[in-house]
Amino acid sequence: MLRHAARLLLSLVMIASVVLVGGVLTAGTAQADACYTWNRTLSQGASGEDVRQLQIRVAGYPAYGQVLAIDGSYGPATAAAVTRFQQAYGLSADGVAGSQTFNQIYALQDADCTPVHFSYAELNRCNSDWSGGAVSAATARANALVSMWKLEALRHALGDRAITVSSGFRSYACNNAAGGSSTSRHLYGDGVDLTGTPSLCTLAQRARYHGFNEILGPGYPDHNDHAHVANRSSRFWSAPSCGI
Fold this sequence. Notes:
β1 (about 20) and β2 (about 25) form a beta hairpin. The longest helix has 21 residues, at about 135-155. The protein is globular and about 45 Å long. By secondary structure, the protein is of the alpha+beta class. α1 (about 1-15) packs antiparallel against α4 (about 100-110). It has helices spanning about 1-15, 50-55, 75-90, 100-110, 120-125, 135-155, 170-175, 200-205; strands spanning about 20, 25, 165, 190-195, 215, 225-230, 235-240.
């Protein structure tokens, strides 16, 4: 309750900080966010760390079968993802990231930059420091953050229904204990296993729209009790019982 109340207060403060200048809504100087604050409107042709931070937040809106590059370059794919994000939240959908878009992002994230419905603790039940996997601890943690924002988009597309994470990052030791593949994406931090409701097939089917190049589910060996989503360099989807 306190967390939600604090988030509501933050949203109201941010809305109050928006001022009308020459008939155009722009962010006021009081606008700030505990995680990351954007200080300029972003559109095609822009580049930089602020673009990369935006791409992380809209990574779950690349369109069916696509994956948005997190490269700090605001090209057509980023504009299209921003447009879908704007449409998903009832904003003016023009592919330009301005105060309305940023305010919506601020309302969706916690101070550690994770989306409000997911946490680093959920994505790592293996150890406390993200070490021991196939990539550096920093890379594994960063990969998990992108996966969380994709899951936030998936959750919203499913009517803001809760999604249960049963497994995320694994070190080699944790992966061996779980009987995971030696090439498991869990070792990279972006692999996530989902259980509960919505149904596993619903999760797997809808995940195709939200930036996951790897989707495994019912009908694929050892995946009848969960849906697995991850990123990888090429697409591999297999959930035969779900028509995938």
